[in-house]
Design a protein that fits this description.
Length: 836
Amino acid sequence: MTKLPTVLSIVRDNTLNDLKGHDGRLVFFTQTVLILFLLTLTLSAASIQAYLQTNLDGLLGADLVLESHEPLPRTAEDVLFAEADGVSKTELISITMTHGETWQRVQLKLVDNAYPLQGALTVGVSPASQSRTVERGPVAGEIWLGPRLAVKLGAGVGDILTLGTADLRVSAILFHEPDRLMEGHSVALRAMVHAGSLDTAGVDGGDRRLRYLITADEAAEGRMESWAGETLPAARLVKKRGGSHPLALFWKRTENFLGIASIILVFMAAVAIDMTNRRWLARIRYRLALYASFGVGLATGVRMAGLQWLIGFAVAFCVGAVGALAAHALIVQALQVHFPGLAFGWHMGAVLKTAALVFCLLLLFQTPAFVQLRHASILALVRAGQIPPDQMSSRQRLWFRLVSGLAGLGLVAAVYSDNWLLTGLVLGAFAAAIAVMMAVTWGVLNLGDVWGRRRAGFLPFAFFIMKQRIFGKSAQILGLGLCVLMLLFTLMLMRDLGATMQAYSRTHDGNLLIADVRADQMDAVRDWAARTGSAVRQLRPFVGAQLVAVNDTALADHMRKPSDTLSALQDPVRLSWTDTMPDNNQLAGGTWWPQATPRWQRISAEAEVMTDLGLSYGDRLTFRIGGQSYRFELAATHRYRPGHGSITFWFQVPASARAHISADTRYMGSMELPATAWPALAGLWRRYPTLSLVPLRDLTERFDRTLAMVTRLTTGFAGMVLVLAVIVLAASISGFEADDRRKNGLLMSMGLTPGQCLKLNLYDWAVTALIAALGGVAGTWIAGVLIYRSQFGLVYKPDVAWTLGMAAAMVIIVCVVGRLAARRSLRASVRDLLVP
């Protein structure tokens, strides 16, 4: 039996020798890049979550905050005042403030005499002045403006602003609110008034949010939390002691998004490792045969190979961890502008979880190689041949490698995905590309072989050779094709997104979006439009509805994993009614209701919402509308259909339901304003400050800022994809180098010149690259069609010339690199080429 020190010494020497070789370095670098990316993501997310928890303790402005979108009954307020040591009632409304001909959309906070309960409220006399702490908010008749709002309106201390019928004097510039934390990641312009200032101002309606800031001991907090959960289903509680930061789920979703984007990197790493495993298997088979000649059993040799792989993983993890720490430090430094006090840290628990994830991923990618070794016979090892067909056929090996790679992707999706529809579409595009490439590979090689049987020349001979190596050639084409797909998917979709969305919105939405208008305000809007020559293009009625339960289970309990859909449903959404399917919707499943149906408690949900929430037909959805609960049965799902306007809704009910719902009707739509009408908007807003009208230029400015940020992120991500693409290309050449050397040696021994061998190699690489490019372009097109339609409701219109140009460039690069590799191998003698 081999002694342990001897085994460890052999394993150490083999590991060092492999790392000195080309293939060993490729695998090591692939593992390191994957570890670096996922560890950097983990450390950054953990630091932000730790910062948010610390931030929660100091910036909540109370021990407990109760938030609701509907007024609490008087009895509920009595319970709060009885249980709490102190209560301050605040209210947030979205309005448009004007000063002269200038307007800005503002988040206005109404406070009472008890505000603030905890923390510092600071103000100044100008946006650039020193701040001072005050004990109370503004008094009746005064208004405080945030510094950005003051600059944008051109207003200062002493100016008079009109809200509805109330004239308010600007008495201070508002710098800091102790309960600012509840605003989450909002960058809205801010202002503050005393609640009594608007009692007779005629400012009503709009999106209102009530908050009760509460100070209480821990026992009272527990009682209020239980009471609110039972009696206030639409309310949200945030507490200082053991609570969760309002932004925690937002950053968790950000981490999930980046994690699911790493599927691209994981897929490319799997391809690179699969390619290099061919050479790794040849080396290990040779070593196992050598061990067998000294009496070492096959099982012991396989265990030694496994130990060697573990050591390589440990070294790659250490190097990747050092790189991740450096990247994490740079990210923390950049984020400190937005999060003062954010600290660099080594979060061991999160790191260990990520280490386990990466270990499982890489082990899945390596498993096919270990299985092949375990099924090998001593005779096959001594002959250094392939695994005998009776043990595992070439077809079985190819499928086993594919399944292992897909299992790794499934693992990443299970850990990070918070949008299963999007994840399914991405994986579906990959699967479609694989299917296209496999079908085209088998079709082209078989048809090429049939075509060339009665013809002479190098191209028919090249088809004959590729047909004999069809399984190995399929693996090579899949690797390169997926590499093309990743590059095009990363670069092209982000490149086209901005232009497509902007062109679409300008075509269909007019230049002014009606985001939220009450029915009694709509007459004034129509009169104003008639006077100014404006036209209302689209208009749909709705009521504000908050989903609070699914099948009588609270929404938070029904779905605990964070997602964009769940985040949006924490607040009221728009619920519309119609008997006919809108022109810009199409039925995605279920049964739409007939005209004037008496069964008014039926509902249709947008397809992505249904998928993300895990809903099924027949589920009972409970909504809070106008302070009352309404239950609907899920009967259908609808999907957005582009080309007929962009006003659509997540939830729609029969028109007969409107008579049973006690709530004010509101409208959403769009208008087209001539240039002369824009200055008159200030007068309309001065009379109706809660009118939510958003100019298209404001939307496009926000979109441009978002797109710029996303472009910076994806540029870095595309850089990592490009690095892995180079690795995949190198691995695809290195992994099949031994086969190519033997092929060239045989051809030259038959009398072919090196130049003729190069010509055959060029045909080989050209066919390989063309099929790979075709599969990559097809996969990118499928992904674009599915994701644009599902996620953005847009028709995907790629730049065909740019796409074909990129694909052609990749084909040329593959052919050039393949030719250089073949030229290098042909410098050796025929004897050397034939030696395995």
